[in-house]
Write a structure and sequence with these properties.
The protein is of the alpha/beta class. It has nine helices and five strands. It binds CO-5-methoxybenzimidazolylcobamide (B1M).
Length: 233
C-alpha cells in the first residue's frame, strides 16, 4: 500500500498482479487494468500471455458469476469495458508481428447479439497472423454479411454468437449463401461460447473455432489448402 492507502500494483509479484487484474476486471476498474497490463508487458510478458492469463481468464470468472446471478448487466458492462481497455493496449502488439499476408476475412457478430469481445479478439489475432480483417461489428443481418462479401471478396467469413437464441441465425446466413450459389466460394468459420463442432457441422459451416488461437490455425490451414489447390491447377 502507498501512503495514501492506494495499492501499488508495482509492488505485487507476477502471480499477485494477475490475481489483481482478475479482481479489478471483476470490479470494472478500467484504469487499474490498464496499468497492470502495462506493468506485465514491462516485465517482459508476451502480449498473448497477458491477454489469456490476465484478461480472458478474468472475464471467464466474471462470466461464471453473471451466470449465477451474482453479477448483473451493469457490472458486466463495466468489466467488459475494462477488458476492452486492456485489449486496446495489446492490439498493436499482437498485430505487429510482420507475418506474411495470408488472406482476407470478413467477421461479425450475428443479428440479435451484441457481444463483441471474443469477435474482436479473433479479429486481432487474425490480423497478427497476417490476415486482412474486415470487422462488421455486432447485430448483423444476413444482408450485411452478403454486402460485405460482395464488396471485399474475402477468403473467409467468420461469424460469432454468444447466445443460444442467436446462434441459429448463423444457419440463416449459410442457407442464404447456398440459395445464392455462393456458399462454396468462401470458407465459413463460426465461434462463440455456446457453439460446438456438432452445431457447426449441422448448420453447414466449414469449422467451429473454440478460441481465437484455433481460429487462426484453422484459417491458416484452409488458406494453405487453397494455395495448394491453385498451384496444382
Ligand atoms: Co452476456 N451472456 N448477455 N453480456 N455475457 C453471456 C454470453 C452468458 C453465457 C452469461 C451467462 O449467463 N453465464 C449469457 C448467455 C446464456 C445463453 O445464451 N444460454 C448471456 C446473457 C444471458 C446476456 C443477456 C441476455 C443478459 C440480459 O440482458 N439479461 C444480454 C444479451 C444482449 C444481446 O446480445 N442481445 C447480455 C449482455 C451482455 C453485456 C452487454 C453486459 C456484455 C457484452 C459486452 C460486449 O461484448 N461488448 C456481456 C458479457 C461480457 C457476457 C460474458 C460474461 C462474457 C462474454 C465474453 O466477452 N467472454 C458471457 C459469459 C460467458 O461467455 N461465459 C455472457 C470473453 C471472450 C474472450 O470469450 O466471447 O467466448 P468469447 O470468445 C472466444 C470464443 O468463444 C471464440 O474465440 C473467442 C476468443 O478466444 N469465438 C470465436 C468467439 N467468437 C468467435 C468467432 C469466430 C471464431 C471464434 O469466428 C471465426
Amino acid at each position: 500500500m502507498s501512503d495514501d492507502g492506494e495499492l501499488d500494483l508495482n509492488s505485487l509479484n507476477d502471480e499477485e498482479l494477475v490475481q489483481q487484474v482478475h479482481d479489478d476486471l471483476y470490479d470494472g476498474l478500467k484504469e487499474e487494468v490498464e496499468a497492470a497490463v502495462h506493468i506485465l508487458l514491462g516485465r517482459g510478458w508476451a502480449p498473448y500471455k497477458v491477454l489469456t492469463e490476465a484478461l480472458v481468464e478474468g472475464m471467464r470468472i466474471v462470466g461464471v458469476d453473471f451466470r449465477d446471478g451474482i453479477l448483473f448487466v451493469p457490472e458486466v458492462l463495466l468489466a467488459a469495458n475494462s477488458m476492452k481497455a486492456g485489449m486496446f493496449i495489446l492490439r498493436p502488439l499482437l498485430i505487429a508481428t510482420g507475418a506474411p499476408r495470408q488472406g482476407k476475412m470478413v467477421i461479425g457478430t450475428v443479428k440479435g447479439d451484441i457481444h463483441d469481445i471474443g469477435k474482436n479478439l479473433v479479429g486481432m489475432m487474425m490480423e497478427g497472423a497476417g490476415f486482412e480483417v474486415i470487422d462488421l461489428g455486432i447485430n448483423n443481418p444476413v444482408e450485411k454479411y452478403l454486402a460485405a462479401m460482395e464488396e471485399h471478396k474475402p477468403d473467409i467469413l467468420g461469424m460469432s454468437a454468444l447466445l443460444t437464441t442467436t446462434m441459429p441465425y448463423m444457419k440463416v446466413v449459410i442457407d442464404t449463401m447456398k440459395e445464392k450459389g455462393m456458399r462454396d466460394d468462401y470458407v465459413v468459420l463460426v465461434g462463440g461460447a455456446p457453439l460446438n463442432e456438432d452445431f457447426a457441422k449441422a448448420i453447414g459451416a466449414d469449422a467451429y473455432c473454440r478460441d481465437a488461437a484455433v481460429a487462426v490455425e484453422t484459417a491458416k490451414s484452409y488458406m494453405a489448402r487453397k494455395h495448394n489447390q491453385l498451384a496444382s491447377n
